[in-house]
Amino acid sequence: MPVPDQTPQSANLSVLQRGITRGTGDLLRRLVKNYLKPHRYAFIAAMIFMTVAAVMRGAFAHMLQPITDGINGRRGLPYMMELSGIVLGIFLVRGISVYIHTIFMNRVGQRIVATVQQDMCAHLLDADLAFFHANASGTLVSRVTNDVTIMRSAVNECLLNSFRGGLELLSLIGVMFYQDWRLSCVVFVVFPLSGAYVARMGKRIRNISSNTQNATGDLSARLNQIFQGIRHVKAYGNEPLEIERVRGMTETIFKLSLKSVRIGALTGPPMEFLSAFAVVALLLYGYTQVAAEQASAGDLIAFITSFLLAYDPMKRMGRVNAQFQAGLSAADRVFTLLDVKPEIIDRANAQPLAVSDYSIALENVGFAYADGTQALEKLTIHVPHGKTVAIVGSSGAGKSTIINLIPRFYEVKMGRITIGGVDLRDATIKSLRAKIGLVSQETALFDDTIRANISYGKLGASPQEIEQAAQAAFADSFIRELPNGYDTQVGEHGVKLSGGQRQRIAIARAMLRNAPVLLLDEATSALDNESERAVQAALKQLQQGRTTIIVAHRLSTIVDADMIVVLERGQVVEQGAHNELLAKAGIYARLYGMQSTGVAA
């Protein structure tokens, strides 16, 4: 039985499916070292103004003591006017400080998240092709968008509320100890108990958040698949099936989100009870102190106000904790992705590929998938400089694997591949791929203009170069007939163009690149006869003077190739020119005969 083409999956690809992999300390250290440290001066400035704002909050609580005693003691209007001016000054300084530290903290938080997003995008673009085949695009998009959005919210909230709340708490606790250190020791037990309870709830919230984000990534991947295959969904009438699948996934997310909210809300009642207990204790103890004339009413009011004001940031930090745990879960997923290292990288001594002879040689090449399935075995093929070699064979014979090995999308496991006698692994990946033009059955057109899609083959190309490439690809005439000519938007995946038009745009892109090596992977297999003739004419123009490897299903398109190689189970079983292979009456002759008579191969 022929072996079906598969995607090699490295062992490190599965890490994206894992749950929580890092502790809170590890995540925070990495965030601080890699992302907060470059903005330390802005962060320090924010902390300074945050400290001023926190001190002003404590100062206001402290001012209640002379104000209350001044009212009870009838100290007079001038005294009260003086205290009122101090209070106004406190609030003015606090308001300015809050404004400045909010701006600084948000700037730091937004910059951290933007940098993380940029790092993720750069890292993904450096990843191996096998990585993308092993992970759904919707899942990866969810990592870059959804997870980073959660991180943004968590970072901003935590930088603002956690730090500000902590400083305010310290300031107010200082006032409480200044007013009455004995009473402070009694009621201070509320804060550690509340903190311990919030931390315990946080661990549960983080686990639920991790599951929620995984489920959201699965939903994003499913929606991406549905929208990409919408024609088939509608053609087979499977809208109810997909709706039911999405309903099930959204219900899972709903239940997880509700559970997270429910657990987060559980922090409220215990903290309310503990605070109420402390306030009652304060009132009873304070009454006895005032009655015994060991403290004034102002002392009691200032102390109770400090406690109540301290309870507010404590409660706020409890609410932030749920968001903080969700952010840590998102950060864990983000760092898990960033830690996946590409396997195909430049060797330490790799040099730019600089040869004049672009002959390609596969020498005893072996390639196996991660599960041990052998795709190529001791394969030897030589493609002379400037010649065209076609590779044919049944499905799973290893044809497309060869196409993917030459640009080093995958790495050979045995033997070697050379261009001009240079082992591909001794050349830098960038210089190697700069020498290769690729046209495949699946034309990759972006939702942009025709001009932009053609110029993707050579960034910065002039309008004249773009139009010359289109003319060489026999695309200029149909482009000029479009409403906006070269500035026509092609839609996602080029949906606004026909199959033949999309292929000719892809060929124009390869023309513009003007690479000495050309790889054609089933470039005409999905086209009708009329479109195929137009594309074939463009391909012949493109092949001139280039070392070309063609993978073809339609054998009629490769009869003029300089050599045809027939593969079977990853090995060469026949090779020669078209007429030579027909004369042998072997596998190629049988396949050609079946296609000529209309029988499926």
Average pLDDT, all residues: 81
Total count of strands: 10
Task: Write the CATH architecture name of the domain at 32-338.
Answer: Up-down Bundle
Low-confidence stretches: 1-14
Number of helices: 20
CA-atom Rg in angstroms: 35 Å
SS class? alpha/beta
Question: Termini distance?
Answer: 15 Å
Helix content: 55-70%
**What is the helix/strand order?**
HHHHHHHHHHHEEEHEEHEHHHHEHEEEHH
For the report, how would you describe the main beta sheet? 6 strands, mixed
Write down the overall geometry. elongated
The third-level CATH topology of the domain at 32-338 is ABC transporter transmembrane region fold
What is the fourth-level CATH superfamily of the domain at 32-338? ABC transporter type 1, transmembrane domain
Structure description:
The chain has a 6-stranded mixed beta sheet, with helices on both faces. It contains 20 helices and 10 strands. The protein is an alpha/beta fold and 601 residues long. The protein starts with 23 loop residues before the first helix and ends in a 5-residue tail after the last helix. Among the domains are: 32-338, ABC transporter type 1, transmembrane domain (ABC transporter transmembrane region fold, Up-down Bundle); 437-514, Rossmann fold, CATH 3.40.50.300. The chain is elongated.
